[in-house]
Amino acid sequence: MQKWIMSGVFVVACALAIVLMFTLPGKEQVAEEQKPTMPAVELDATAAEATVKANCISCHGDQLQGSVGPNLQKIGSELTVDDIYKTITKGKGGMMPSFKDKLKDTEIANVAKWLSEKK
Asked: What is the pLDDT of residues 53-69, one digit of tens each?
């Protein structure tokens, strides 16, 4: 009886291992998720300002002067457009939330371009 139970547990463990092998993301997929690529967009300053006003001023201030979040008035001289895009997309620690589920990739890219010109 004990052999049957152990055999059953072994078979279930092997089946679970096989399922996990084919469903867990690979190294390439994990690397891609960690390094989002910015889509090509043409800067629309009006839309970027509207997006920032709707999503960012509560932490970064109405003039981007900083409040709970850092000052963004000259962020373009500190970070590249890709770095800004990645930060908005993924978030940063517990303070900066991820906006990948709240904004479209093109909206994030437009805001990143707009902020990158703040120098």
From this structure: 999 999 999 999 998 99
- Specify whether domain 35-116 bears CATH 1.10.760.10: yes
Q: Is the pTM of this model over 0.90?
A: no
What are the structure tokens assigned to 82, written together?
A: 């890709």
CA distances from 92 to 22, 41, 45, 84 (A): 30, 23, 24, 11
The 3-state DSSP class for residue 92 equals strand
Interhelix angle 105-116/81-90, rounded to 10 degrees, is: 140
Q: What is the pLDDT of residue 7?
A: 86
Percent helix, percent strand, percent coil in the chain, to nearest 5 = 60, 0, 40
CA 82, 80, 57, 34 torsion: positive or negative? positive
What DSSP character marks residue 64?
S
Q: Are 101 and 30 in contact (CB under 8 A)?
A: no
| 3-class DSSP assignment, residue 96 | strand
